[in-house]
Design a protein that fits this description.
This protein is of the alpha+beta class and 332 residues long. Helix content is 33%, strand content 24%. The chain starts with a strand and ends with a strand.
Length: 332
């Protein structure tokens, strides 16, 4: 069964939106990224938008896809992950070029391998894959077979969802407040530092990311003695769900409970405006954060693995030809 591929965010959401909203926690990243893209596109002037029929079609633009669920057999009348009748959506993927390709939770190893071969044959360049273990294994194996890339484990993550919020006790000194424009430079530096800490791809300048968050009240600061000591970010609310992150405290201020307080304050702020699901991801290699969030009332939902790909040209010292342009919406 083929994947349907598009670079058009609106087309993707028109087809896969119901599927994504059926499990907003598991589909948190796809929902929030596409919402950010939708908001950014709406804010552009008509002259700045992509030509009709070719939205975001270049190799440096996001790419999306969906796949119908498997035809149910007599012993499996309703395949996991399907929404509605056969012919609806059973799995999705999203690729923003600066991050690994992300596969939805309900995807078989066979479907993941097919997608890897399709993307490799089209010349799409990938930094890695983010998926559940079985799908990640199958995708990475097919990708390596087709490209010769080396595959290594970059991160193992766990998705948590808030049950009943439990505030830290004792609560650290200080209080929470929403970040404002006067915090902009500090926040950009802390976003940089967070990316370095967790090994995410560096950005040239995080001011634009900070500005976007400030625009919708998406950063909570914890202050002690009138000085910012920790932050907890929130995504935009989509389908009644928000995701917490990043959570960052400078190294010299850690161990004092500030991160827990900032996370609790951001979580409470989301609940106060009627958010139904508050989620976050942790790095399973960090036992401190995993224990902290569970003390705050977060409960495990699923685990994922991120594999990184190292192209042969990097290992051998020569440059690969630039990715060719992908086709627009269609069946691969």
């Amino acid at each position: 069964m083929s994947w349907f591929i598009t670079a058009d965010t609106e087309e993707f959401l028109a087809v896969a939106g119901e599927y994504l909203r059926a499990e907003p926690a598991r589909n948190s990243v796809v929902l929030t990224v596409t919402e950010n893209l939708r908001v950014a596109a709406a804010a552009q002037s008509p002259a700045a938008q992509s030509p009709a029929g070719a939205p975001g079609s270049g190799p440096d633009e996001p790419l999306f896809g969906w796949r119908p669920p498997a035809v149910p057999g007599p012993e499996s009348p309703d395949p996991v992950g399907a929404v509605g009748a056969v012919g609806a959506v059973g799995a999705v993927f999203m690729h923003t070029p600066e991050f690994p390709v992300l596969l939805s939770s309900h995807i078989s190893g066979q479907a993941a391998a097919t997608l890897a071969r399709d993307l490799a044959a089209a010349g799409r360049q990938l930094l890695g894959v983010n998926a559940a273990q079985e799908a990640a294994d199958a995708f990475a194996a097919a990708w390596a077979d087709h490209t010769g890339d080396a595959v290594t484990v970059h991160r193992r993550m766990r998705l948590f969802r808030l049950g009943e919020l439990i505030w830290p006790a004792p609560e650290p000194d200080g209080a929470a407040r929403l970040a404002t424009d006067r915090d902009r430079d500090l926040l950009a530096g802390w976003f940089d530092a967070f990316a370095r800490d967790v090994g995410d791809p560096p950005r040239h300048d995080n001011h634009a990311v900070v500005d976007e968050r400030l625009g919708y009240g998406g950063i909570t600061l914890w202050e002690a003695g009138g000085v910012p000591v920790s932050i907890a970010g929130l995504t935009r609310t989509v389908a009644g769900m928000v995701r917490v992150g990043p959570v960052y405290t400078p190294p010299e201020l850690r161990g004092r409970g500030y991160a827990g307080a900032a996370t609790a304050a951001a979580s409470q702020a989301a609940l106060d405006v009627g958010v139904r699901e508050v989620v976050l991801y942790t790095d399973l290699a960090n036992p401190t954060s995993n224990a902290l969030y569970q003390r705050l009332g977060y409960r495990p939902v699923e685990d994922r693995v991120v594999f990184s790909f190292e192209p042969a040209h990097r290992r051998l010292g020569f440059t690969r030809e630039r990715t060719r342009r992908l086709r627009g919406a269609g069946r691969w």
